[in-house]
Amino acid sequence: MDNKTIYALSTVYGKSGVAVIRISGSSALAAVKAMTNLDIAKIKPRYAYFVSLKNTKTGNTLDKCLILYFKAPNSFTGEDIVEIQTHGSKAVISGVLSCLSEMEGFRMAEPGEFSKRAFYNGKMDLTEAEGLADLIDAETSEQQKYAMRQMEGGLKNLYDDWREQLLKILAHLEAFIDFPEEEIPGSVISDMKNNVFKLENSVYNHLKGDNIGERLREGFRVVIVGPPNAGKSSLLNAIANREAVIVSDIAGTTRDAVDIHLDIKGYPVMFTDTAGLREANEEIEKKGIEIAYSKIKSADFIICLFDASKDGVQIFDNIRNSFKNNTLLVANKSDKLTSEQCSNLQKQGCILISAKQKAGISQILDRIYDFICERFTSNSNLLITRSRYREALQDVMENLQNFGFDKEIELTAEDIRLAARALGRITGRIEVDDVLDKIFGDFCIGK
Question: CB-hemisphere CA count at 13 Å for 414?
Answer without folding.
Answer: 6
